[in-house]
Amino acid sequence: MLRVIEPGILTTIQDAGRWGYQQYGVPVSGAMDLFALRLANQLVGNPPDEAAIEVHSPMALQSDAPHLVALTGTAAQFAVDAHTMPTWMSVFVRAGATIEIAPRRGWCYLAIHGGIDVPRVLGSKSTYVRGGFGGLNGRALIAGDQIPIGAATVSDLVAAAGRAASEHARAFASRAGAIRVLLGPHADWFAPEAIAALTRTEFVITEQADRLGYRLRGDVLPRARRGELVSCGVPLGAIQVPPDGQPIVLMADHQTTGGYPIIATVIGADVPLVAQRALGERVQFAMVETEDRKPPAGF
Amino acid sequence: MNLRPEPRLLPAGDAAILIEFANEIDDAVNDRVHALAQHLRAQNRPEIRDLVPAYASLLVCYEPRRAAFAEMCAFLRAALAASQSARLPTPRLIEIPTAYGGEFGPDLAFIAQRSGLTEDAVVRLHTRVVYRVYFVGFAPGFAYLGTVPEPIAAPRLETPRLRVPAGSVGIAGRQTGIYPMDTPGGWRIIGRTARRLFDARRDPPTLLRAGDRVQFVAI
User: Fold this and answer.
1) I need a labelling partner for A277 at 20 to 30 A (CA). Which of A2, A251, B39, B167 fits?
2) Looking at CA atoms only, how far is residue B46 from chain A in angstroms?
3) Is the ipTM of this complex over 0.85?
4) Which CATH architecture has domain B8-83?
């Protein structure tokens, strides 16, 4: 059990998402940075898609028992009993320890060996705050919450203790450079200059950025067609363009359907890079083809 | 109906393909969408993670580590051919008992005034039609229903309400729908039902599903 001392803002329980229910209007949700979630779980010996605590602002927990934990994701101050601890590595915390996590921006993930023992709702432990279900009582964490942790065996704990992410993996998680996108599905709704502008422009993350989507500011992406698109299903990473020509990248809690044309879609491996960009930071897109969309070997 | 001769398979990132039959709201097109979704569900392929039917398209979300784009396209083209003549099951008909007007339907008077009808006549028109659930989207359990008779079609509110209570029955253009939970909303609200549209503890979690038929009953 972990007790929430200081909840922070928008701290939620997230796993790899609620798949199979979009036909009922239920968003997939799940971790904003799936790469960091999966690595955190591997470091503590959990299945990669297990739920972890997604942290977006300074928060603190108290551990009621010894636990093996790992923190990954955005750069954060991580302290146990006021001692700075390494991130991207599994570390033991003693019973009664205070765990403090303070990300500077973006999202980080605290995985705990044994996983988070909340019931699956529609197949997932992810919290969907707007719908009021999943996670712990369907909401962000509040002070006093008791987060149940799954059972651990000593041999499993010992096997995972001290695991650290490779330099390669850490460099991959925070790699700089352009965000890779595939053209479409609605590229033919846009003028050729819009497609050129999409990869030429340095867009800026605006204050309208949350778990649903990130609104960007930059050159206007003009449409070639008038009229309206009838609503269709929309994928994670879709770059929707409303009539004002300023793109929105759809993130984990995005609605299942939408009516704005999608000029291009961020590939799955690069969605975490968008997620970790903060207000005022820049985003540049690079067009790729279906063959070179795979992440580098080793992942 | 204006079906494309050949539905388009459009890449939607590296983990989804959008199958676009047309860009219009049409019952025959929507039937093709549901026939394909039904066919794909029956195939139960492990690489398919989710299906998102809409008016005239189906988004197929797949696991790119299990299937390449070209393989998925070949599979989907075969599924399109196989489902072309598939018969859809007889749709379910779901009745929605609705209290119209008054505090439950604050915009009923507006629609009556706009159409030159009495409030009772608006209700008669709204309850006369058997609506099709084109798809469920926007929010958990929100069914896009059509089509309302022309005289009672109505524009959205210019300023959406900050809170529309769960169960509210609204009209927007020629669409009608029921809010599954308390949310902000811009549809014209004409009534309210006590039926529960969404319950995350049930599986499937929604009262209304794509392809269902719906009839409102005044109470």
Assistant:
1) A2
2) 12
3) yes
4) 2-Layer Sandwich (3.30)
